[in-house]
Amino acid sequence: MLGKGELAGIAPGAGPVLAGQDERTTTAADGDEIADGVRAWSLPGHTAGHTAWILDTGDGRDGEDE
Predict the structure, then answer these.
(1) How much is the mean pLDDT over the chain?
(2) What are the boundaries of the region Disordered (predicted)?
(3) Which pLDDT score, from 0 to 100, does residue 3 have?
(4) What per-residue confidence (pLDDT) applies to 61?
(5) What's the average model confidence in pLDDT over 8-17?
(6) What is the C-alpha to C-alpha distance for residues 39 and 1, in angstroms, rounded to an integer?
(7) Going edge to edge, which strands form the sheet with 51-55?
(8) Who contacts 48 (Cβ-Cβ below 8 Å, separation ≥6)?
(9) N or C end of the chain: smaller count of CB under 10 Å?
(10) pTM score, two decimals?
């Protein structure tokens, strides 16, 4: 599972850079929920398509300090 922009940043013709990339790779766009309580969060910087994964524990916390 990769952020959608991660594969887009690979130079054309560079070929797969991950083993089985074409057959086994799934991408997620910013905000996509990939499983119950798990969302993609686009964080470009390290790479153009760098992605973090937000885990909603269901306990009402939003990640901010109280």
Answers:
(1) 79
(2) 1-22
(3) 86
(4) 67
(5) 69
(6) 12
(7) 33-35, 38-42, 51-55
(8) 5, 6, 8, 9
(9) C
(10) 0.65
Return the exposure string of 45-64: e unless at least 16 CB atoms fall within 10 Å of the residue's CB, then b. Answer: eeeebbbeeeeeeeeeeeee
pLDDT (mean) for 41-58: 85
- Phi, psi (deg, nearest 5) at residue 41: -135, 110
Residues 6+ positions from 34 with CB-CB distance below 8 Å: 1, 28, 40, 53
pLDDT mean over 35-44: 91
Q: Which sign does the torsion angle of CA 13, 16, 21, 26 carry?
A: negative
Sequence letter at residue 66 = E
pLDDT for the residue numbered 44: 83
